[in-house]
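To close the chapter, one final illustration. This time we ask the reader to focus less on the individual chains and more on the assembly as a whole: which components sit near each other, and how the overall shape emerges from the parts.
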Amino acid sequence: MIHVQIASQLTVQGVSGVRWVLVEPVDAPLGAEPGAPADPTAPPAAAASPAPQTGSPAAGALQLGALKLAAVGLGLGAALWTAHVQVGPPDAPPTAPVAPAAPAPATPQALPAHQDSHGAPAGSAPPAQARPLPPATAPDRPATPAPAASGGPPRLTASL
Amino acid sequence: MTHPSSTEPLPWHDEADVLGVRVRVFFFDPAEVDARAEFVARQVPILRQSGARLLFPEGQRQGYRAGLLLALPDAVLAHGDGLLCLSYKGGDGRLVEPSQWRAQFRVDVMLQCIANAMAVAGQRQQPTAALWRGTNLLCQFDPGVAALECLATHIGAARHYWRELQSVSPAQLAAFCEPRLRALPGLADSAASAPTAAA
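The assembled structure is written out below.
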């Protein structure tokens, strides 16, 4: 704290009757004063002189960056966990119909084979039909994802 | 012309409490005083025969800092074992009628002078008197505890209010603190009390 003395009386010889008060050397909440002295007990003259930087701005920037990274990591982790729960591990066999993968490279001759009983393309099948099915029942469905996913043979046949 | 001895109080013409600050005023004839060559006799006529001397040449302003308070007083004089912080460039330049000085008194100028003196006292670590020299009067401000604490404790808040990054000026601090001083119980009434005649 800086000791401030205000003279209350004037005489011909000098001042007298001091009143004093304490003044904060720096603003503590912000703590980012470029000219703030490193030592709070430093004399006021040191506060007026260009004191060395305390590094508070750099520390604040680092904290902000770490906070941003943590937020991004948490979001990424949550997304991966959701995908793991709903779809499964990335290298595991698909547990739900993946019909959209087959018709893309298929030739026009093979397209009618991937239409369902309603005549709609397999790729446009509503996902609501595939999600409720447990993995065990998926291979039993007509136009199952397994043949579609391993659609190499039909594609080869169509090419021939 | 007689001058007071070193132990006598200075011949102030009037004094009054204004918002918790004891204000002492000394009136003079500007035509005569402004013609004086010596700085102290011209700007602080009540200390004409004293040993007060300027710390820096006239017109050269030096910055003083106490914490976040940064002041550029018009002049700082060494006077005995203390300092005089003098402001004389502010004000509106009007002549003040001695019988009406309180009606024309500017509280913002008073608080600025006290804040200037606080910065000087904080940096120099010497007791400092706050003075203001108008067109035809000289004022000495003796702040009470409430006024002094109000100014000292609102420096950071004033800086936030004015969105200053490095420091706050005495004018900004005075503008920030004046309504708070007026809101303090007991101080607002002091502005309306009758002045105490002196000398």
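Chain B touches chain A through 54 residues (CB under 8 Å). The radius of gyration of chain B is 16 Å. With these observations in hand, you are ready for the problems at the end of the chapter.
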